[in-house]
Amino acid sequence: MPKNIGDRFLKKIADRFKACIRDADILCRIGGDEFALLVPDITNLNDVDKIARRIIDSFKQPLTVSGHKFSSTVSAGIAIYPNNGRDGKSLLKKADIAMYKAKEGGKSNLQYFNNYLSREINLRNDIKKDLKNAIHNGELFLCYQPLIDAKTKKTVCLEALIRWKHPRKGIIGPVEFIPIAEETRHIISIGEWVLKNACKQLKEWHKTGRTDCGLSINVSAIQLQQPDFAEGVIRILLETGLLPKYLMLEITESVLIESVYNVKRNLNRLSKSGVKISIDDFGTGYNSLKYVQTLAANSLKIERTFVFNIKADINKVIIDAIISLGHKINAEIIAEGVETKEQYEYLKEKGCNIIQGYYFSKPLLPEEATEFLKVNSN
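^ that's the sequence the OP posted. Answer follows.
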């Protein structure tokens, strides 16, 4: 690869931008792979939209640099004077906010700044600021959703699900704060807190005779990339007195994208100790079959969207294929998001081993889960 190809690539990008804009428009690079475009004398917002779409569409064709072809996509954030700001600094900041929102929607998107985005950013900033003290202040708590044997309808496992009781904003779900916890790396301490408290809780249930029940916990890619993650899990199991065979860690296929060595090392160490590994949202990643080859998974979890649309023939084909694959590699099949009798009956008939969802139970507080176990354990 020729030297300075990165600089040449950026120059090619700038040239392609220039081919899409007017002579009066001002283009500048503001750092890294980010460019700012000032579009003056606009009387109709449709004209802004056309320019942005033209730029995005132009990058559908690869760029050729020193004989090498490179693919690239553009995400655009747009702020309008004077509605979104009356000076360059303010407009640039809000365009940047809109751009990151555009990126969340996938490749080749554009997003206009609006007040909703501003409120969302303020909420994110509040969460980011308050999250680091959430454990210390006792604001985090766990719920447990039962996993049910499809044939016996008995509880075989409980999935620990984290919630945050914010002092001002009320209950905040994991969808809102876990991505921020991963971004700030607070997920490491939060994940350790979840593991320790969930293992303690299951040990308490075991003391009351519910020894056929296991525990399932979601693990972030950030946690798995830590060199000492496996040792930390084993230490907590020893401290709480919980046998490794009762713990199942749920991972998504994306965990193998980065820091492959640490991830595989941790998972192999845990698997050898007796901890079970489940691949969550199976079938939604680009390399599902590759990960089955890489990981000796104990179970595959069918993603809820396949279950929700179970009447669709294509989803039935996918579900049937996952169940067949799982059985051939001696992995149990778990279906999440099961809400109706029709879904349950179909999955049971096709050989799905474990059912999770509101058809049997919502996520329960510890005291509620205790009562549930009294009538639904083996």
